[in-house]
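Worked example (supplementary).
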Amino acid sequence: MARKGLWLGVFVALLALSAWLMSRGDKEKSTVRPPKVEFPRNATPDESVRNQKRRTLPPLPSPNNNDEGFRMRRDPMLVALPVDKKRSAMVFEVEALKETPIAQIWLDCLLERTDRQGDASGLERFKERFGIDPLEDVERVAVSSERLAIMQGSFSGATFDPSVWNKRTYGEKGVIYENPESGRTIAMWGGDMMLMSGVSDSAEAVEDAIDRLESTDPNQKSILNETNAYGDIYGVLSPEDLAKMLPEEQDALAEKVQQVVDGISVHVDASEDVAIVADVNGPGGQDLEDLSRSFGAALAASRFKAKNDGNEELANLLDYAKVKQPAGGHFALDVALPIDVLKTLGPCRKSSPPSAATAEPKNTSK
Amino acid sequence: MLAIEAANVRKVYSGWFGRRGAQTALAGLDIAIPRGTAFGLIGLNGAGKTTFIKIMLGVVRPTDGVVRVLGGNPEDPNVRRRIGYLPERLFLTSAFTPRQFLGSVARMKGLRLTESVLIAQLERVGLGPDTNRRNGGFSKGMRQRLGLAAALLGSPDLLILDEPTDGVDPLGRAEIRKILAEERARGATLFLNSHLLSETERVCDRIGILAAGKLVREGRLLDLCGSETAYRAKFAPGFNAPALHEIGFRNSEIEGEMRIISPTPEALNQALDAARSRGALIIGLARDLRDLEDVLAEALGTQSPQSESSSPPQPLNVHTGETRSTVGQPADSVHNIPSQSVHNESLVNASDLEAAL
Amino acid sequence: MRATFTVASDLLREAASRRWFLALGIGITTVLIVLGFALRLEVVDGALAATRLFGREVRTDIRSVDVALRFVYRAAAYVLFYGGLAFGIVACADFGPSLLAPGRIEHLLSLPVKRYELLLGTFLGVLILSLIGAVYGAGGFTLIFAVKTGHFTLRPVAAAVLAGVTFAGIYGAMLTAAVALRSAALSAAVGVVLFVLGIIAGYRDRLDTFFESGAAREAFRAVTFVLPRVSALADASADIAASAAIRYDVLASQMVGLLVFGFASLALGIHLFEQKDY
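After joint prediction of all chains, the assembly is encoded as:
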């Protein structure tokens, strides 16, 4: 009977111990946030509707001066961007971005730094100077390698101190403000667009942009067309600019890029974790295939090097880098930046939680 | 020294719903088996034989009572280490060869036996040619032989054999009997449970009859089966039966044979002399013994169906004077000669009889 | 313990002769051979550039080979974990009843062994068997990819070991069921029930919200509290295989907990076994 009780007792004790041991993982697991990366590959229905509403410019006339074919109305922001294919341009959907986790982190960081320094932030200074709140009044911002920044939004409250800014009109709807002291040039166009030149003492970039907005040249084409306007950030990179961005040890790759690539369109989704898709376009064939492999190899080599150098942050970022196989004259380069990894970067970095730092992204495509 | 000792052993198998459906397998069994004995336990199906065997092995726990085997508790592995057991239906998986099976049993017994020892053991039970054959295709007899080989591993002090010759061919049975005789000669105690009563008769010197969970009869084989004063005499054709009736001979169920009760050898010889003087020619004489079947039937209060008919020829042992005849057990002054069964024992030749007399 | 090891080794020998396990061995070996010959992986500077199966190109992303293999290993870990568990439940359900078969159990119990050693030996045998199967499959799989890509990791093997341990935990309960009632079907049924409930128990913190707060939810939590967290361990196994970071202290706790669950079940089985007549 003693043995009878013994094994029953062992059973109860072991069952209790096992239940306790197994339950230790129950709570821990639920706190781990699975990374959610959505690679933007096409416009979402919401983005399509948004793009449609933004087509406020009348269509260009037919190149042959006849009415054959349907001509689409145009998005003024895209029209204002450069036409030169050697230029690059990126559009930031501020209204969408400011709701994203990464923007929240960035804003928190900004506020923390401002509090720490006891000085007004750049956003505050901008608001004080021009009466425009970048976070409230700006819908989107575009920058181009022409050193031109274009903002679109609600600028009815914009103010320019006449004692600082010289005002002149340009074209049908353009008003240019020039600051002789700083050499800066800002233009307002149509009440909802603000154009800022990054070149001192030169209004050329701004004037060119207004010219494009008001032009009726049927052959005019922006480097960024409407079909590529999707994602929280999007734009085009010229092969030359991409080549310049590559590190020195990738000179061979940079040269290949300039030889093979026609252009690169970039799309970023930041609605959850940050996902970047770079579509590399070219003539296709073996050269493009080789280039895609070279990119993959370069990413792998960089990742191994980062690991060997002990640069875990970079290595972790490159964990999510991949190249899609070429198809139809283009291939995609995907990079994911999980929020938990991004938190560990930049001036307000936080220590990386181990569960998230190397977690696999859940790949989906828009 | 006792090999097996049981006092008031009861075993009640409880049913699914407590006492309802409970079955009593043993109802107060008392038994004492000395070491070196060849004991046969017989009884009808459901008498409790297998239950008692399992209790002796610690496989089944008694509801009540005490069982001691080789002086210890059978639940003690050290006691079981000294027991060799052959179950009635040994389960063998087809995964093993006989050699592997024996190796496994040896390991569990804590024996470090070499391959040659294992093979010798298999050869001893007649499985030499099947050493490396898978058990899967083994016949019942081969399984029993293998089980016996496993039981014999480690030269146990007590061999408990449940139907050891069941399914074994006649020559194989003789081989097994020889092995068991060797084991007895070594000093091992045999405990045999067999439905083949003739086998039990041949192997065992003590018999226990179990009925309804109780030992109803137990003793030496001779004591149970025989009467030391009853004889059968066979006469040459043409003898005068009424004349023989006058001197005490009685008719037997076999033609040419007559029975006589003689309390002493002298009285027997006088009766024989008287028969001869009346012209009867004696051509055979044997002790008038019953077989186990009759004993079992008597103990259980039923009638043996075979007691009404003749049995096939069996060896007969005849003794004279104080030397008793025994079955299956060599003894001094015992003659082992082919004969009828103990029950209908055939009669010895006159020359043999004379020599015996 | 001598008897325990003997029973375990006998079980392995018995398993080797069973069709189920022969089929498993042949199946795994065939898959490995086919993979070995039919799969071509082109690695360029540490990046998996192209994949060909039976000479046909499989469209895969070009990325670091170890990262690319994470997805393969993760998928393989899930297949091995859930597939292995399901296979083990079906294939091993008969070991307990076979041990307790008439003519075998009384023979075993007549030998100088303790009863618990027989059950412990069977449990140990199944644990070893599941580990051998898991390590053979995962090891071969890993080796093939290691040879083809130059990237070697033991993580998939570690993941497979986790699957083996998980099955052993479940098998403890299956063996106990077999002791209670000598039936392979019952043993398998207990395994299947634990398998399914274990998947639910692994997500108990998420699933309890489906129950009304109060008695129903508490009952759900109480029942799942003692059950093995099968799905949690499957996820952990996949995470290990895919080199994803996990809380090893938590994993160790759950893994040990599962083994202890197996031993707890076994203790109940021994308790029943000790009371039984054969």
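Two points are worth noting when inspecting this output. Residues 303-357 of chain B have pLDDT under 50 and may be disordered. The two ends of chain B are 38 Å apart (CA to CA).
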